[in-house]
Specification:
The protein is mainly α. It has one domain. It contains six helices and no strands.
Length: 117
């Protein structure tokens, strides 16, 4: 049942994002940032855990999951380091994923043959 819930919840998130892209003047980048911010808000309010238990990867894989990861990192860093954790927690929690994306981007740029316009 978790697989079915992951499928329809993740699909619903993507459907809402696609409707926003198609029917509004919002740029895709703003919509993606909005999804990350929504993940931070839901994670900060403690609403992501019940959603994760219900839909698993359907909620945690889209951009909502990255926002939740940052919110959890900030919570932990505040508990450990105090107010400094507000600035460091999100980046510390997301550092592995961010570094991985940067490394893949460098590899892709080395392997591709860019064409000047």
């Amino acid at each position: 049942m978790t697989i079915l819930n992951a499928f329809w919840v993740g699909g619903l998130i993507c459907l809402i994002a696609q409707i926003l892209i198609s029917k509004t003047k919002l740029t895709p980048a703003r919509i993606l940032v909005g999804l990350v911010v929504l993940g931070v808000v839901l994670g900060g309010l403690g609403l992501m855990e019940p959603l994760k238990k219900f839909a698993g990867a359907g909620v945690s894989v889209p951009l909502l999951g990255f926002g939740d990861l940052m919110a959890q990192g900030i919570k932990e860093a505040i508990a450990k380091d105090g107010a400094l954790g507000i600035l460091t927690g999100g980046l510390t929690a997301g550092a592995a994923g961010i570094a991985f994306v940067i490394i893949l981007g460098v590899i892709a740029s080395i392997l591709s043959k860019p064409k000047e316009k």
